[in-house]
């Protein structure tokens, strides 16, 4: 593939400009450590699971170069359509998109030298099956690098929410909050157990964390990331008739926290798992 010449690019082309704005800030916090942990070997087969709109598959395809091939796997067709546009804009030819699920991957055994997954393997419907599939399609000596957020994610919200439910006498919803946290973020002990039972050696665990800061609870609850990726599942924890009151009160509580502390901080603990399959590449 010839290197694209930037001086020939039309910086007024809306399709190009749309492709440039490619990375959710949220994902970058996870992927920074993933991209640092990956072993950069030449001419390898790479699988990125849960690539969404293209991260980090696009980045890996470029960092590994034309002699390596990267597959971006995600069942979310609208997101991978966007990835297709980005690939076209950048002229990337060593990346293939596949709409499939991690739990059932259409690859032969021992296909990949490297598997990556940025904040996805703990979100699939059947994590055990997905990890088993990863092991099956990994070559001997392959590396798997996965990031995920941990149960303490946004604990500032998760402290305030049950408190509000208790204040409003909505005790029947409290167990649902705990279940929701477990379904979204697995404790590291569970993941460790899963990985070693499957046969991977967990050679490194890194624990970066980041914080998101807001002027107050109103700004937090109205932020596009929160409205898109968090709020619908939080609302669903309470019956529809109780949602307005519950979230009004959560907002008030978070605003009070912001007032006393100067701003609102949400903490996001992350783990980056570096796993190896026994054998030589
Ligand atoms: C939190 S997003 C992460 C997206 C991207 N890796 C990033 O860092 O921005 C989780 C992704 O996992 C995908 N996903 C959900 N279930 C999946 C499954 N069973 N197999 C593969 N991907 C799945 C979703 O479609 C979504 O794109």
Are there runs of 5+ residues with pLDDT below 50, and where? Answer: none
CATH class of the largest domain reads Alpha Beta
Distance between the termini: 26 Å
Radius of gyration computed on alpha carbons: 21 Å
Number of helices: 12
CATH topology of the largest domain: Rossmann fold
Would you give an account of this structure?
- With 281 residues, this protein is an alpha/beta fold.
- It has two domains: 1-149 and 185-209 and 270-281, 3-Layer(aba) Sandwich (Rossmann fold), CATH 3.40.50.150; 151-184 and 216-262, no CATH class.
- Helices cover 45% and strands 21% of the residues.
- The chain is globular, with a radius of gyration of 21 Å.
- The two termini are 26 Å apart.
- Residues 24, 27, 31, 49-52, 55, 73-76, 79, 101-103, 118-120, 123-125 line the site of S-adenosylmethionine (SAM).
């Amino acid at each position: 593939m010839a290197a694209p010449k930037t001086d020939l690019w039309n910086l007024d082309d809306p399709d190009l400009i749309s492709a440039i704005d490619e990375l959710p800030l949220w994902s970058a916090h996870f992927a920074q450590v993933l991209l640092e942990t990956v072993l950069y070997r030449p001419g390898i087969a790479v699988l990125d699971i849960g690539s969404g709109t293209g991260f980090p598959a696009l980045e890996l395809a470029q960092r590994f170069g034309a002699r390596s091939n990267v597959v971006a796997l995600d069942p979310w067709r609208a997101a991978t359509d966007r990835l297709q546009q980005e690939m076209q804009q950048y002229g990337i030819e060593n990346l293939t998109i596949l709409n499939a699920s991690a739990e059932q991957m259409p690859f032969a055994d021992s296909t990949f030298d490297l598997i990556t997954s940025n904040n996805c393997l703990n979100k699939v419907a059947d994590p055990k099956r997905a990890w088993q599939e990863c092991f099956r399609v990994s070559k001997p000596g392959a590396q798997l690098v996965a990031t995920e957020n941990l149960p303490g994610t946004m604990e500032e919200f998760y402290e305030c929410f049950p408190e509000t439910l208790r204040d409003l006498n909505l005790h029947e919803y409290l167990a649902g909050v705990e279940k929701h946290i477990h379904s979204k973020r697995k404790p590291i002990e569970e993941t460790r157990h899963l990985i070693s039972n499957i046969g991977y050696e967990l050679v490194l665990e890194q624990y970066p964390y980041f914080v998101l800061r807001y002027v107050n609870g109103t700004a937090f609850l109205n932020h596009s990331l929160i409205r898109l990726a968090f709020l619908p599942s939080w609302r669903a924890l309470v019956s529809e008739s109780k949602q307005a009151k519950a979230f009004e009160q959560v907002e008030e509580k978070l605003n009070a926290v912001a007032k006393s502390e100067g701003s609102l901080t949400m903490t996001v603990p992350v783990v980056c798992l570096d796993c190896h399959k026994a054998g030589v590449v």
